[in-house]
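Q: Okay, next protein. This is PEP-CTERM protein-sorting domain-containing protein from Geodermatophilus arenarius. I've checked the sequence twice, so it should be correct. Can you predict the 3D structure?
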Amino acid sequence: MEFGVVLVVLGGFLLGGAWSMWKADHDTRGRTGPQVLIAVVLLVAALLATASGILRLV
């Protein structure tokens, strides 16, 4: 398996983690600041991993 495919799959897992963190809000308080920060960091990492995986495959 090529390293580019591994990066694309890793990006998918990170994207799923970002979505999971974003959806895990509290019933009354909503989303907390650290929760939003973790979701944004995971989203950026997912985008970087996916983009680098695609570029590596090309």
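A: Here is a summary of the prediction. The chain has a mean pLDDT of 91. The two ends are 15 Å apart (CA to CA).
Q: Noted. On to the next one.
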